Amino acid sequence: MFQKVEKNIKEQQERIIKEKKEENKRKEEELRATYNEELEQIKKTNERERQEMQNKLRKREEEFKKKEEEIKKETDEIVRKELQRKLEEQQKLFEEENERKEKALGEQQQNFINYLKEKHEKEKQKLQEKIQHETREQAECEYREKLEKEVAKALKEAEERVPFRSKRARDWSQYVPVLGGVAGGAVGSVEDIVHWIIRKTSSTKSKNEE
After folding, report:
1. Looking at residue 67, what DSSP letter applies?
2. pLDDT tens digits, residue range 172-199?
3. Per-residue pLDDT averaged across 118-141, rounded?
4. What is the full DSSP assignment across 80-136?
């Protein structure tokens, strides 16, 4: 009997594990989709910021060209050279500032990507641990319930096979230790005889009817 119970429990555990694996796979796909969505969002944001920087760069370059044209019109050579020098300094500072912003933007994007990857891995690990814990708890709970039912069934069957004299001796001895056991055994013996006669009569009657 207990081999059958063990087989049933094993089949239940395998079913639970299969269900939890499917649940884990589904939730991992949801996590991956969220990760890809967040990653795509940061890329779009950075691309928009980079495009704005490029637009500013082109605008400033056009301004520098206009100033260069204005400087060329200057007739005083000394003044023209000084204006040209200042313009080149401004242009250099702007280019350096633009490079710093480009670099910072790239680093910001990479840092955020690394953060998302780490966050995704942690959530994935946490999910796996949660699923494993739930699987173990559910399997243990169902195992206990199944085992308790089978044990109760086995005890009931064993109790039904115990002769009445033993049952009565056991029950009565709880109230009167010695005499109760003897008296209970005697009463139980009579019950055993009565039940034996009933079974015998029923069996004979069945044979005669046949």
Report:
1. H
2. 455 445 444 444 444 445 455 545 455 5
3. 78
4. HHHHHHHHHHHHHHHHHHHHHHHHHHHHHHHHHHHHHHHHHHHHHHHHHHHHHHHHH
State the pLDDT at residue 64.
80
- Mean pLDDT for 116-134 is 80
Q: At what angle do helices 77-161 and 2-72 cross, to 10 degrees?
A: 170
Contacts of range 163-166, beta carbons closer than 8 Å, 24 or more positions apart: 163/188, 163/192, 164/188, 164/189, 164/191, 164/192, 164/195, 165/189, 165/191, 165/192
Interacting residues of 98 by C-beta distance below 8 A, sequence separation 6+: 53, 56, 57
- Cα gap 196→198, rounded to integer Å: 5
**Mean pLDDT, the chain, integer:** 71
What is residue 187's predicted lDDT score, i.e. its pLDDT?
45
Residue partners of 32: CB distance under 8 A and separation at least 6: 120
Listed in sequence order, the residues at least 6 apart from 180 whose beta carbon sits closer than 8 Å to its beta carbon are 172, 173, 174
Q: Are 168 and 184 in contact (CB under 8 A)?
A: yes
Which residue has tokens 């370059």? 61
